[in-house]
Amino acid sequence: MKMYLNNSFINSEFTELYNLAESSLIPLLEGALYYTIPLTIISFMIGLTLAVLSAVARISTIKFLQTLSRIYVSIIRGTPLLVQLFIIFYGLPNIGITLDPFPSAIIGFSLNVGAYGSEIIRASILSIPKGQWEAGYSIGMSYTRILQRIILPQAARVSVPPLSNTFISLVKDTSLASLVLVTELFRKAQQIAAKEYNFLLLYIEAAIIYWVICFILSLFQNKIEHRLERFIS
C-alpha cells in the first residue's frame, strides 16, 4: 500500500513537471524567436560594421583614428558587458537620454561585438603578406583600393572561424538582456518560473533551447569553415 502511494505520488509529480515543461515551451520559443535571435543578428551585423571600421582605423596612418580606435577597444574590452548594459539602460536617463530595453540591448551588444571583432579583423588583415600590398602599389592601386580589392577579401576568409565563434557566444550573451527588461528567452523563463515556483525545470528548459540554437549554428559554422579551407593556406 505504501509503495503504491509512493508510485502514485511520483507519477503525479512527473505528470505535473511534464505539463509545466510542455506549457512553457511555446512562450520560451517565442522569446527566442522574437527577441533572442533578432537581438543576436542585429547586434552582430552592427557590431561587425563597427569592427571593420575600427580595425581599418587601427592600421591606418592617421594617428587620431588609431588613438580613437584604441580607446574604444580598450574601454569595451576592459569593462564587463553587464556594466555596459546597465550604464546604457539605467545610467543614461540621469543625463536625459532614455532608451527602450531592446534598443539599449542592441547598442550594448553591438559595441561589445565591435570591440572584440575589431581585434579579430585587425589580426586577419595583418596576417596577409606585405607582398600583397607591394604588388598592389606596383600596378598603381591606391591604399583604399588595395584594401578593398585585395586585403579585406583575403582577411575575411581568415576571420570567419573566430567571428563565427563570436556570433555563437553572442547568442548566449543575450541572456544578459533580461537584466535590462528585454523579454527574451531567459527573461521568459524567469517570469514563468516566478509564477510556477519551479526554477530548476524552467532554467534547464531554457538552457536546452540555448544549446539547440548554438548546436545548429555550430553545424553551419563547420560547413562554412570546410568550404573555406581550400582558400586558406
Automatic annotation (TrEMBL):
Gene3D superfamilies: MetI-like. The keyword Transport applies. It is found in: Cell membrane. One of its GO terms (cellular component) is ATP-binding cassette (ABC) transporter complex. It is a multi-pass membrane protein. Residues 29-221 form the ABC transmembrane type-1 domain. SUPFAM superfamilies: MetI-like (SSF161098). GO terms for molecular function: L-cystine transmembrane transporter activity. Keywords: Amino-acid transport, Cell membrane, Membrane, Transmembrane, Transmembrane helix, Transport. Signal peptide: none annotated. The chain crosses the membrane at residues 32-59, 71-92, 200-220. Belongs to the binding-protein-dependent transport system permease family. PANTHER family: L-CYSTINE TRANSPORT SYSTEM PERMEASE PROTEIN TCYL, MEMBRANE COMPONENT OF AMINO ACID ABC TRANSPORTER. This is Amino acid ABC transporter permease. The lineage of its organism: Bacteria, Bacillati, Bacillota, Bacilli, Bacillales.
